[in-house]
Specification:
Length: 175
């Protein structure tokens, strides 16, 4: 009996350690930010990935879809959200991007992968991207814990999908 008890306790300890290192990737977006210098609210679109779990997340890839079709980068995201052709020119001044894939995100860390300040000259595209946040843009990320347990998070559901390993993506999102 004591050997079984030791094995069972060891198993419980392993599960406890894994639970205490569980990452959980979530997504949020907004259309205003606080200016640090002036403490004024600015009209500024932001798309953010956050590790809401208790352990580090090794992000393998991120995928962004607009109307069900994957986009490779922020320019393509803006163009498709505004229903513009892929070769259209847009004003990318005041666009700030950050890569997500390959990053290790500590518990509680947030990374804004796209920040775009409002200006009159980019109004139609900015507004289209703002509206597309609701129902037209989906984001997924595949990430793993330090124990190589992996999940896929999806912006449209709080549930994660447990996977043995992150599948290869046809169109990974790169800033």
């Amino acid at each position: 009996g004591s050997i079984w008890l030791a094995l069972a306790q060891g198993d419980d300890m392993q599960r406890l350690v894994q639970a205490q290192s569980w990452p959980y990737i979530g997504f949020h977006s907004g259309n205003s930010t606080l200016d640090e210098a002036t403490h004024q609210r600015l009209r500024s679109l932001g798309f953010t990935v956050v590790n809401q779990g208790v352990g580090p997340a090794r992000v393998r890839w991120m995928e962004v879809r607009v109307d069900g079709a994957a986009v490779p980068n922020t320019t393509a995201l803006m163009l498709r959200a505004a229903r513009l052709p892929a070769d259209a020119r847009i004003d990318r001044r005041d666009v700030y991007t950050s890569g997500i894939a390959g990053r290790v995100m500590r518990a509680g860390e947030e990374i804004t992968f796209l920040r775009w300040h409002h200006a009159a000259q980019r109004e139609p595209v900015w507004t289209a991207l703002d509206k597309a946040r609701f129902g037209r843009i989906e984001i997924r990320a595949c990430y793993c814990s330090v124990f190589d347990e992996c999940w896929i998070s999806h912006s449209e559901t709080p549930d994660t999908l447990r996977v043995d390993q992150c599948p290869t993506l046809a169109v990974p999102f790169r800033e």
